[in-house]
Amino acid sequence: IAGITQAPTSQILAAGRRMTLRCTQDMRHNAMYWYRQDLGLGLRLIHYSNTAGTTGKGEVPDGYSVSRANTDDFPLTLASAVPSQTSVYFCASRQTASNTEAFFGQGTRLTVV
Amino acid sequence: AQSVTQLGSHVSVSEGALVLLRCNYSSSVPPYLFWYVQYPNQGLQLLLKYTSAATLVKGINGFEAEFKKSETSFHLTKPSAHMSDAAEYFCAVMGSKGAQKLVFGQGTRLTINP
Questions:
Q1: Looking at beta carbons, which residues of chain B come within 8 Å of A41?
Q2: Are the Cβ atoms of A101 and B34 closer than 8 angstroms?
Q3: B69-102 pLDDT, tens per residue?
Q4: In sequence order, which residues have a C-beta less than 8 Å from that of residue B4 and are 6 or more positions away?
């Protein structure tokens, strides 16, 4: 089934540890996004990529890094996790040329303790 | 730059009543606008979108929204609420030119009273 797959589904992480959230899409979309969702704050854009090989910063990029080595994968890395990064993380993708909507993964629930 | 403000973090209506969820946007270029719905413990699902065609947009599940440039608004409505409409709703904006970042509002939680 075509779509976006995020892994892991949930994770409890010790503060100071490094963590990579994985996101893979099989729709050949050129743009991909990472959001965090926090109660009362909606979805805030962390990083985005409009095409393979390029990335950009969103609203809340500090403490996070991304890479876009190919079209399908867009991993999000927390180099040294802190409790304020406890959140639900959503990956999304869209095809920019046709001005279509973004499609979302099911999310990763991350708890940093 | 683009931004979205959703007026009202919680909206409660009776079953069968009109649903009105408010969204105002800011964009330095002509915008594309979206409404998404999120059911508990799920990802986001598109309800409808405006991409510079008709200003009145119809979506799934009986929802519709009207793009009003003069008011910089894109309010979501449904004539008659159903219990299954209870969810969180997000308005989002993206510039039609430039970096094309997709920016979301804070969300509105819709509760339906029997």
A1: 106
A2: yes
A3: 999 999 999 999 999 999 999 999 987 776 678 8
A4: B23, B24, B25, B26, B91, B92, B93, B103, B104, B105
